[in-house]
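Hey all, quick one. A colleague (J.T.) asked me to put the S-adenosyl-L-homocysteine job into the tracker so the inputs and the structure tokens live in one place instead of scattered across chat threads. No bug as far as I know, just bookkeeping. Sequence used:
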Amino acid sequence: MKKKILDYTKDELAAEIKPPFRAKQIYNWIYHKDVHNFASMQNLPKTMREMLEENYIINPLEAVRKEVSNDGSVKYLFRCEDGYTIETVLLPMKKEIKDEAGNIKKEAKYTICVSSQVGCKIGCAFCLTAKGGFKRDLSAGEIVAQVLNIKQDMNIAHNRRVNIVYMGMGEPLDNIYNVTKAIQILNDIDGLAIGARRQTISTSGLSHQIEKLGKMNLGVLLAISLHAVDDELRETLMPINKAYNIESVINAVKKFPIDQRKRVMFEYLVMKDLNDDVKSAKKLVKLLHGIKAKVNLIYFNPYPGSPFQRPEEADMEKFKAYLNDHGIICTIRQSKGLDISAACGQLKEKTANDLS
Ligand code: SAH
Ligand code: SF4
């Protein structure tokens, strides 16, 4: 089987091909010029183009489905070389900026939510990805390719700012080697040049891996899927809590190096009558004491047969107000793409049903 060139950091590529300076040129063709066949890489010698053609592939993914939501979010289903499918979501946002003359104009800002594994081992009770079980880790190139394909498909100019969130299928810290490699490839100045500070790893709380990531000092941002404020409830929702309880997660976060201007995000999935009360908000304030945190409240997004319900808007607002009143920045995540079921694992499920 041919090797995947997107799996390579620039240094790794330079170590494999001769002369090494060609690595930068190849990176430029692929990531800056969106040229996805070796034959067209005109500044490379013909023999090298042939050698590359014979030994490497560029795009390891094929888009098999694309759904556009009324709110502009776009969900892709990609097929890997071995037939497994993964999903990726593009969330466009309009950002108001002032030009030199002081006029306010709206500029498109993009966030791409990428998958890190086919399925997931963690088995959270509320998550559709968990239901399909775990198949395998994605390679660094398969993670990078999600971004590359979407940028190309949506004609997103090279210099447009893009944020990456590792919040699609899978637990990124359970695939830390490939995920951190993808972060570095995406970050490369001769590649897509997406700074580590524009990339956020979301984790269910693998404490020792959080510490390991912190020691790597990549400058990446961290989001913790907390969802519950006491171990008893968290254990029933997220079995990982038996191995790494809330205290261990909080301790790992406290050690994590974070940019002065940034905060650790705590995601809190709100489920009706389960964790939506002010008492929980109160406990959350205590837990986050001493951490530069921000909280993102997420409406539980029900799916057929799901055991939980979407919370009431009034309860969400009360929860948020309590946190805000106690000095914690809190936002409510606008449920993007509900009409195309753009929450974790839901498009894949739909496609499987359609095809069966
Ligand atoms: N495994 C990582 C990242 C992927 S999950 C993690 O758990 O953080 C990304 C987010 O989707 C998590 O915060 C998860 O709680 C959320 N999620 C899962 N199922 C959901 C649902 N049915 N409705 C809304 N959000 C959901
Ligand atoms: Fe895995 Fe995250 Fe889903 Fe939990 S919420 S099963 S960790 S993908």
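Adding what we noticed when we looked at it: The CA atoms of residues 217 and 309 lie 39 Å apart. Residues 126-127, 167, 171, 202-204, 225, 267, 269, 298, 300-301, 343-344 surround S-adenosyl-L-homocysteine (ligand 1) (CB under 6 Å).
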